Known about the structure:
This protein is an alpha/beta fold. The chain has 18 helices and 19 strands. Helix 7 packs antiparallel against helix 14 (about 395-410), helix 13 crosses helix 14 and helix 17 (about 480-485) runs antiparallel to helix 18. The radius of gyration is 24 Å and the shape is globular.
Amino acid sequence: MDFEAVAKYSALHLKPAGLSLQYGTAGFRTKAGHLDHVMYRMGLLAVLRSRQTKSTIGVMVTASHNPEEDNGVKLVDPLGEMLTSAWEEYATRLANAEEQEIQSILTEICQKEAVKLHEHASVFIGRDTRHSSEKLSQSVIDGVSALGGQYHDYGLVTTPQLHYMVCCQNTQEDYGKATVEGYYQKLSKAFGELTKQASSSEDDQMCLKIDCANGIGALKLKEMERYLPKKLLIHLYNDGTKGKLNHLCGADFVKVHQKPPLGLEIKPNERCCSFDGDADRIVYYYNDTAGHFHLVDGDKIATLISTFIKELLIQVGQTLKMAVVQTAYANGSSTCYLEETMKVPVHCTKTGVKHLHHKAQEFDIGVYFEANGHGTVLFSKAAEEKIRHMAKEEKENQKREAAKMLENTIDLINQTVGDAISDMLVIEAILALKGLTVQQWDAIYTDLPNRQLKVKVADRRVIDTTDAERRAVAPPGLQEKIDELVKKYRLSRAFVRPSGTEDVVRVYSEADTQENADSLAHEVSLAVYHLAGGIGEPPQPVC
């Protein structure tokens, strides 16, 4: 290892004194001015990971739905998946190391992971539209170069596009061409094929307003438009020409505030959706004729997609094992509808995309979405082969056509990670094929009223949970108190979990009415405040 080069470059990317960061599900995220050294060191780590796996590794510079002044970075593993846990720990150690410790940490990683230093290393780099991203991605390049790795800088791409291209590269392009054009071509072709059977009258044009959060999604949709069939009419808002990234717009804003983004006028019953800043989340919404806002979130997206796939499986006569994977935040009505009406098994995991993705891999077909609109569908290799074989060889016309629709669905979905563009095309295709309006989709089931609150505590680690975070095992007495409070309200449930990033405890409640959900959330918040070391003023009732 050329430690001289590592040290020489490192001197140009010094760590601010006293800064400590943690690599989480979303990688590193903080104020952009604190990240130069982290970017350089993630370039180093990506080279070691590439040599260890003998594969191309991705490095994405983004802070997703965070404010514009923040930035972040995450590494992408060979099949486009998130970085494995052991290497998350290496990332944290390397980011927090003092200058003189870098050499010994790199050496230790090489020894523990049997990294061959003369192995070829390849790194794909992408970035979002933040002002700080270009300079920070140059710091990643410095890290890759210091250890003699090769890199391909894709420049401005969505996070899911980088995941996709890493997967394409490492499957010898079996998954698709490792270019942005290849991504557009594969998705557009699948969308065109899938929607062939949809009604083609003028009145049935697919019309959609898209809030792009003033982020990368707008740039990429503009590039992609010429590849898409003319029957899909998309109108872009918050496209980055004047607004601020994620400010009063984007999927996270719409989900949290339950209202339309700034800069998007909605006529009654118009179908609208919002991406987040790096285009890996999507939520839909509309205003009814009375002017009331309706959010169609990740739970309803999972329900729409899994219902569609299940119906096609029945048509092709396949008994592939399908399941929907949710977190404790999934609305109780969605779980009930899937299990009882659609007879689709539902599994619950801890919060965090990584947990959902791993669980979804256990099935022939695993559908997962967080309520915030981040999610995708995974098809096992065996399931995919069966479907593709039937689409080609099946003698019975009806079965073959249904298998072709499943095949096109597979090609339209970005299986590496949640992808707002891909998910949007899947949803638009299903709505067109089923002849559903956004209101009819929303009416599949009615969400139970719910409330999310947070309570500041001295140390979030006093809270420990089990049963996919649905029950608290510490501090003593807290779960018993929650059980007692839940009994007071109809159709109710509540849970608490520590935040992954700050000293707060998150509280979630559901009940038969909004008033009851609010009261339950407040009472649970007070229990957390008193039993888990709350600080500051006690929680106030929800206004």
